[in-house]
Specification:
There is one protein chain. This protein has 356 residues and is an alpha+beta fold. It folds into four domains: 3-101, Rossmann fold (3-Layer(aba) Sandwich), CATH 3.40.50; 131-189, Dna Ligase, domain 1, CATH 3.30.1490; 194-299, D-amino Acid Aminotransferase, Chain A, domain 1 (2-Layer Sandwich), CATH 3.30.470.20; 302-344. The chain is built from twelve helices and 14 strands. The longest helix is centred in the N-terminal third of the chain and has 14 residues, at 83-96. It is globular.
């Protein structure tokens, strides 16, 4: 009986980690904060253990509690699920007393998780990155005489939030807001074209598995972009990176690429990679034994759930990946029903098949 413990400080990415872990462990426990409580209703959660601590501000008592949970439940692997829990394991993983999923060193994580520092890393390593400026406040941006060097449109974003929170496109100087809910403010030149994502599983700076895709409003399609892989490999080797890392990339109509952000952690669409045969949780756990790379059986092309539902009465129009994705949704009815409710109240984003 193999057991995993997922450290959860939220719901959206954490649910994907839970589903991927359920494919390679007999039982998956969740140690979660109040923001993760809905995970207890998933049929794939063996037991939800409430955590009243803070993964970002750990005390000695918290570490003792987590270690005791691992011993009581005979946990074979502790899994992170977001930025906070990944950084937590990078600092305290060896103090828990149980095996944990590969994660980067804390200094590497901090350099890559911060959008401003990541832009500097790209510049130092010669990776293509848009012109980026950092301002202490929005007022500093509005009165900066060199602001126009960035041109319009431009992108405003926070340096540390995830999930697109706070990101805003500004087309003219008149559209600059008078205030934002974060500081400092990152200002980045807009790169026209399409958005690509590339994720890698790494061991000591070597890539062992990869999954890249293009996401639009109504579908997700697997792609291969050698230029992105080559640049990513140099950065990964530079940090002798361990664990999962991903990049948001823009590709211009002429084919030029620009690295926008880095995600040194699990990511939202990791469950789609699992359907293609690349379960990053399984592969990461195997890294302890340094096993061979895995490859996806076929290229993915999945429409959003709403568009898939329109074809339920004509299943012969669905490809293998879409049929697998529908089975994936149906297997967890409680969470799928919650996602349907979110859709009904207008909070459901149709981007490559998002559930939550």
């Amino acid at each position: 009986m193999k057991r995993a413990l997922v450290l959860a400080d939220g719901l959206r990415i954490q649910y994907r980690v839970l589903r991927c872990a359920s494919e390679c462990f007999d039982e998956v426990f969740v140690l979660g904060t109040k923001n993760a409580q809905l995970l207890k209703f998933s049929r794939f959660c063996e037991r939800f253990l409430s955590y009243t601590g803070n993964f970002s501000l750990l005390s000695a008592h918290d570490l003792t509690v987590i270690g005791r949970i691992c011993r009581i439940h005979n946990i074979d692997m502790v899994l992170p699920s977001c930025s906070r829990t990944t950084r937590f394991l990078s600092i305290y993983g060896y103090d828990i007393g149980a095996p944990f999923f590969p994660v980067p060193r804390c200094d590497a994580f901090d350099a890559l998780d911060d959008k401003w520092r990541f832009a500097g890393v790209c510049a130092d390593l010669g990776l293509p990155v848009p012109l980026t400026r950092r301002f202490a406040t929005l007022a500093d941006l509005r009165r900066d005489p060199e602001r126009d060097q960035l041109g319009f449109p431009l992108i405003l974003k926070p340096t540390a939030m995830s999930g697109g929170c706070g990101v805003r496109r500004i087309d003219t100087a008149e559209e600059l807001p008078t205030q934002v809910s974060y500081s400092p403010v990152l200002c980045q030149a807009y790169v026209p074209g399409e958005e690509l994502s590339a994720f890698y599983l790494c061991r000591a700076g070597a890539i062992t598995a990869s999954f890249s895709y293009r996401r639009t409003f109504d579908r997700l399609e697997e792609i291969r972009t050698p230029a992105i892989d080559a640049h990513a490999a140099r950065l990964i080797e530079h940090f002798r990176y361990d664990g999962v890392i991903g990049f948001d990339v823009r590709r211009r109509p002429n084919g030029e690429i620009a690295f926008i952000e880095c995600n040194p952690r699990f990511w939202y669409h990791m469950d789609v990679a699992m359907l293609a045969g690349l379960n990053f949780v399984t592969l990461g756990c195997r890294l302890r034994n340094w096993q061979d790379n895995a490859t996806a059986p076929d290229a993915l092309d999945i429409r959003s759930p709403r568009r898939l539902c329109r074809n339920l009465l004509t299943p012969w129009r669905l490809n293998w990946a879409e049929r697998a994705y529908l089975r994936y949704i149906i297997r967890d009815p409680a969470i799928s029903a919650w996602a349907a409710f979110q859709s009904a109240i207008g909070r459901y984003r149709l981007a490559g098949g998002q559930l939550l």
